[in-house]
Fold this sequence. Notes:
- The chain is an alpha/beta fold.
- Helix content is 28%, strand content 26%.
- The strands form three sheets. A five-stranded parallel β-sheet has the order 8-7-6-9-10, covered by helices on one side.
- The termini are far apart.
Amino acid sequence: FGKNIIKNNSGAHYIDIQNFNLNVNNKLTSAINDTTHFGASNLIRSDRYSYQSVPGMDIKGKRDSEYRLHVINELLSRHNITLTNSHVLDVGCNLGLFVKYALMCNASWVVGLDMPDVAKTARSYMYRSGFTKFDILGVDLKSSSIFDQLPYKSYDFIFYMSIEGHIGFPEWLSKLSFEYFLYEGHEGES
């Protein structure tokens, strides 16, 4: 615990609340698989499963999150791009794994956007993971009113990861100013 445990006559006390994991219960795991799912149940697979794997929670998904984060980290490092002290926007954040990644890279503040039910689960996941320097907004990603709901109109970095196939490039996105825009296409996209 990095010497963050103090023990005295009244017991042991954890004195730093940044980036620690609480025990995650089955209710959150169930919500993750239900609201951030990929596909439907069938005869071979009785339950829907998560869109992406969730490191540290033993949740498997269609996409390997640790590999994706590794590739992104290598790309940013190769170009000497840092998220330190930056404002980051993650469009279609799903569970918030790129929100979490940005915060672990010392971003000042991160805003995630996704559908309301997904955003609720993502906020719960992020709080249970020990993070607080973020907003995750439940919105209609195609709505022009998103621009007015954003806490910032300028971002250092925008994640646009596998979302274009679902929402295209909505008009509100062109109103934002940013320095870096990381785009990830869908399978089979040229």
